[in-house]
Amino acid sequence: MQDDFPALTLEIMDLVGDKWTLLLVYTLGEGAMRFSELKRRASPISQKMLTQTLRGLERHGMVDRSVLPTAPPQVEYALTGLGRTFLSAASVICQWTKDNLEELQAARTHFDSARLAA
Amino acid sequence: MQDDFPALTLEIMDLVGDKWTLLLVYTLGEGAMRFSELKRRASPISQKMLTQTLRGLERHGMVDRSVLPTAPPQVEYALTGLGRTFLSAASVICQWTKDNLEELQAARTHFDSARLAA
DNA sequence: CCGAATCCTAGAAGATACTG
DNA sequence: CAGTATCTTCTAGGATTCGG
Description:
The first copy, chain A, is built from six helices and three strands; from the N terminus they run H-H-E-H-H-E-E-H-H. Chain A has about 120 residues and is mainly α.
């Protein structure tokens, strides 16, 4: 896999290199959800960024969008199979981050105070 | 873990939410390396972004920087223990991306052509 | 209720020149 | 060799307004 790093990291950044994608994937991991509920759960995301991020996820085949034939219209979003396996993979990073929160915090504090002295 | 998503995703984006961090971590995963070699291997990164990204990694305790007492000075960068466990976690996403490249590509093509029609 | 369109600003990132 | 400093460009993302 070594030789594919550049291309793969570019692809990954294209997938989740923005501010909200990861949060939305995790939120949708709790179940299919409508636009407004998603907006509440992923607060403080703006409508614009919610729409924009959802379009990106849809484009990558990670999220399925279905318009319910009601009035007023309701739109439901759900992870696809691809989205679910992605969530599983992403959970590993999430768990790592949780497990190492204190060490990360300590490293930052140490680095910052050392820099302040200089 | 569910309730920690917002905070964790923010933390993750702080760690690897920029353009070059992931690539550098992967590159350093192949072994300790000097500035110039790193710059070559992570091409086309600029000196500025290389320095800046390395400082960030150092700050997070993921990379160790050591100045060799030679003339001209040589500086070697290496993953710390924390950096290595992070790399392991990140590899899962990397592998997922590799395994699903075709499906991702197909989803994008399909989405884009559907949009073009409209 | 869901989302498109527009405007605007902060910060990311590239290019270039210079230093111990 | 390994940076720092400055300048410019570009784009992500927030605020707001409007439409079906």
